[in-house]
TrEMBL record:
<feature type="domain" description="2Fe-2S ferredoxin-type">
    <location>
        <begin position="254"/>
        <end position="341"/>
    </location>
</feature>
<dbReference type="InterPro" id="IPR012675">
    <property type="entry name" value="Beta-grasp_dom_sf"/>
</dbReference>
<protein>
    <submittedName>
        <fullName>2Fe-2S iron-sulfur cluster-binding protein</fullName>
    </submittedName>
</protein>
<keyword id="KW-0560">Oxidoreductase</keyword>
<dbReference type="InterPro" id="IPR001041">
    <property type="entry name" value="2Fe-2S_ferredoxin-type"/>
</dbReference>
<dbReference type="InterPro" id="IPR036010">
    <property type="entry name" value="2Fe-2S_ferredoxin-like_sf"/>
</dbReference>
<dbReference type="InterPro" id="IPR017938">
    <property type="entry name" value="Riboflavin_synthase-like_b-brl"/>
</dbReference>
<dbReference type="InterPro" id="IPR050415">
    <property type="entry name" value="MRET"/>
</dbReference>
<dbReference type="InterPro" id="IPR006058">
    <property type="entry name" value="2Fe2S_fd_BS"/>
</dbReference>
<dbReference type="Pfam" id="PF08030">
    <property type="entry name" value="NAD_binding_6"/>
</dbReference>
<dbReference type="InterPro" id="IPR013121">
    <property type="entry name" value="Fe_red_NAD-bd_6"/>
</dbReference>
<dbReference type="Pfam" id="PF00111">
    <property type="entry name" value="Fer2"/>
</dbReference>
<dbReference type="InterPro" id="IPR039261">
    <property type="entry name" value="FNR_nucleotide-bd"/>
</dbReference>
Amino acid sequence: MKLTLVESHMLTDKIRMFLLKPTLDSDILTDAVPGKHFNFQFIGRDKRLKQRSYTLVSQDINNHYKFIIENRGCDSESSTIWKLLLDNVGISIFGIGGEITFDTIKNSRNVLLLAGGIGITLPISLIYECAKYYSHIMSGKNIQLVISYPSLRDIPYLNELLDFHMKYQWFTLCVNITRSKLRKTSDIINMGRIDLATEKTNGIPDTVVICGSRMFTESMIKGVRCNFPQASIFTEFFGSTQVQLTNSEELNKDKSIVRVKDFDTPLLIDNNRTVLDNLLQNNIPIRYICYSGICGSCKYRLIRGSVLNHPDFCLTEKEKAENIHLACCSFPKTDIDIELV
């Protein structure tokens, strides 16, 4: 499937809204639900095949899809996506993933949405869906969005969220500004990072949705488990496939050999790229969607050798004990033998 531009406009200095539609020869995606993420596939500046996931914010009756995309700089993959869309080249869709939609929260009484930075796109999609299904006064429902941003001007749809706060009795907005100074604070907007121990919530949340950077997500998970241990937690994190290695994690050599069960030819691979990137570069078919350690599609069993793992959000302790790894979150340290599962 391929999507092309219908319209676009800037939301902040770095964030743009894109309204996209399928090309005439594309099939309609029946599983496209706001909150799920579309896997964009394209050729990057280095001429390699890339994938990035973006949350579907909303969908209209004409099957137009709305996305919010932050441009992270002229050398970033997001800038390439901006150019492809604004030049009407379009973008290919490899698949749809994600498990957090309106269905995730619709039966919950008290929902807490925690978002850091561009992670706000998923909560926005959920709030839009709530506005469709709930009346202005929805008895017994409390949806609270707590967001963390460096400055007010960086927040997309801030005015609309403030309007929702005033308009819908079931919705509460809390904004935490971490860098720029505020002339004044209010019940809605305050300085500082999110502190769940002191944050005012409308009742005790039974469902918590967390979306943001890996560090933000891990911090919020700890806070929720400490302050609201009874709550069901749902997390979503999007990031680059190229995880930066610290000095203490430097690999012993630049190249290794990987042997994939049921494939005859050993592969020479780059230790500074993920196992997933290496397999794709060598045309080894492997399932993958999110590229971020969330969906669990790219599992493999390590038969021999060792890998460096970065944190993920989906492997169980049982899977780890069985030497199951995620290709998008692991780097080869030695020659390895693997089996795709």
